[in-house]
Amino acid sequence: MKVIVVKDYNEMSEKGAQIMKDVIKNNPECVLGLATGDTPIGMYNLLAEGYEKGELDFSKVRSVNLDEYYPLSPDNDQSYRYFMNKNLFDRINIDKANTNVPDGMAKDVEKSCAEYEAKIDAMGGIDIQVLGIGRNGHIGFNEPDSELVPTTHLTALTDSTIEANSRFFASENDVPKHAITMGIESVFKARKIIVVASGASKAEAIRATVCGNLSTNCPASLLRLHPDVTIICDEAAYSLCK
Ligand code: F6R
User: Ligand 1 pocket, 202 CB below 6 A?
Assistant: First the structure.
């Protein structure tokens, strides 16, 4: 696992965007694994700028997102589909038909999860997976637990994640209690993974990921088993590693 410590959020975004740009330029038909949340927004802004400047072409790029609340309609402005359209897809020339987000309205969830996993395989895996990290060390919505479901599945959100994500909703009660998420095995199908983290609220999760023991109680620590993971974190997020 490679760790790059940068000064602040802006530098984190620049570094992350540079790695993504290199992947897209080297392979215009690449598959991007994408995350939502606050942390990657700066990176997505830089990718959109790269497109506006004529530096990047997304016409043949395909994407697969980590997770989606369940149940939640894609039209809901808190859905991750809505987030992706607003923060990236509507700002670049990606074909929406080539973008994939788990179905937050699936009737048969098990079938929908199996199809999502099969789709990742059919795309030939993921060229670069972007991950944020939860304050509790979750990746996607793989929450700390004694066991982790390996592939795409329905999961219950922990109280700490519901509380952390309530800032986006009218009240904590409005946060869906479940989500569909790629599993750790799905994430490991990516050939390259970058984890972006900023701020002191992520310091304990980064410490546990970078120098704690491997544990399903910190799902991100398992990333140390993947051959190509780069953590890009700012000084505040790295502060407990010293
Ligand atoms: C989002 C996701 C989550 C977030 C994590 C950090 O698709 O999978 O694991 O990456 O909760 O969220 P932020 O960036 O808002 O701190």
Answer: no
Task: Report the atom number in ligand 1 closest to the C-alpha of 181.
Answer: 8
The torsion defined by the Cα of 18, 121, 228 and 43, in degrees rounded to 10, comes to 20
For the whole model, what pTM was predicted? 0.97
161-194: per-residue pLDDT in tens? 899 889 889 899 999 999 999 999 999 999 999 9
Q: Would you call 102 exposed, middle or buried from its count of C-beta atoms within 10 A (0-12, 13-18, 19+)? A: buried
Question: Six-digit token pair at 5?
Answer: 């410590």
What spacing in Å lies between the alpha carbon of 35 and ligand 1's midpoint?
Answer: 7
Distance from C-alpha of 65 to C-alpha of 5, rounded to nearest angstrom: 26
Q: Of all atoms in ligand 1, which is nearest to the CA of residue 161?
A: 11
* 188, 186, 140, 94 alpha-carbon torsion, rounded to 10°: 100
Cα–Cα distance for residue pair 64/47, rounded to 1 Å? 16
